[in-house]
Amino acid sequence: MFQVRLLYSQSAESRISPNENGKVMTQENSPPKVIPQLIVGLGNPEPKYDKTRHNIGFEAVDALAHRSQISLSENRRFQALYGEGSAAGNKLRLLKPLTYMNRSGQAIRAATDWYKLPPESVLIIYDDMDLPVGRLRLRLSGSAGGHNGMKSAIAHLGTQNFPRLRIGIGKSGGDKDSISHVLGKFSPQETQLMAEVLQLVVDAVEYSLKQGVEKAMSLYNSRTVEISS
Predict the structure, then answer these.
(1) Residue 11's pLDDT is what?
(2) Helices 188-211 and 213-220: crossing angle, nearest 10°?
(3) CB–CB of 43/96 below 8 Å?
(4) Is residue 40 packed enough to be buried (19+ CB in 10 Å), middle (13-18) or exposed (0-12)?
(5) pLDDT at position 229
(6) What is the pLDDT of residue 30?
(7) Pairing of strands 164-168, 90-97
(8) Between helices 148-157 and 104-115, what is the axis angle to 10°?
(9) 199 vs 209: CA distance, rounded Å
């Protein structure tokens, strides 16, 4: 038997209040917080990719949709599954590109153009081999880090200055190449752990909607979900 447990060190929070643009200012007059308006999960659309490590971004969006009772349906204009509703008192738009991973940016750009959203309002969720299973990492900007879906997103948005949430899938073992690893499925133990990770992802996104990505970074980047015997 094994159990899943959550480890974290929680930092102190400063008091905040929203301004008229939907961004958040602290009482210390720090810069406006980044509030996501479009949440994108990266993955591949065919059934054979369901529940694979590379599709954890899709699963994250599904978890967000479930929590907020949002239905996703095909939007041909975006070449994606799309749905919208509300979460944490804010409008929530969810997108799962159907273009395949390497062309994810096409769907993202189509949605941002249609809704006239700036790149910094797009939060992209995807898998990361450089993070161990059980960890997630929010950042306000950064490179693609070798991830083809993020390369496409950066190319189509014309900038890497947009927030992203990476979900750890761990590195491949010595007997498995990287492609087989990312396109493979989680072990039974990892599957149970990832269910908890996805709930943590949903919490982090909802917190970002309320108090900004930077605040969520300080609270959730230190958390770890572990399997204990």
Answers:
(1) 42
(2) 140
(3) yes
(4) buried
(5) 59
(6) 65
(7) unpaired
(8) 30
(9) 15
pLDDT of residue 32: 78
Sheet holding 164-168, edge to edge: 73-75, 80-87, 90-97, 38-41, 122-128, 164-168, 136-139
- Alpha-carbon gap, residue 147 to 129, rounded angstroms: 10
Per the CB < 8 A criterion, the answer to whether 217 and 139 are in contact is: yes
Nearest Cα neighbor of 108 from 90, 92, 84, 124 is: 124
**Helix (H) or strand (E) segment spanning residue 225:** strand 224-228
pLDDT along the chain (229 residues), means of 10: 54 40 51 90 96 97 97 98 92 96 98 98 97 96 96 98 97 79 93 96 96 96 84
| Residue 58: φ, ψ to 5° | -60, -45
Which domains are present in the chain?
3-9+34-228 (3.40.50.1470)
Annotated active-site residue 156? The verdict is no
DSSP code string of 110-121 = HHHHHHT--GGG
Residue type, 228: S
Rounded Cα–Cα distance for residues 102 and 153 (Å): 9
pTM (global) more than 0.85: yes
* Distance spanning both ends of the chain, measured CA to CA: 6
Give the separation between CA 215 and CA 159, rounded to whole angstroms: 22
Q: What is the DSSP pairing of strand 3-7 with strand 73-75? A: unpaired
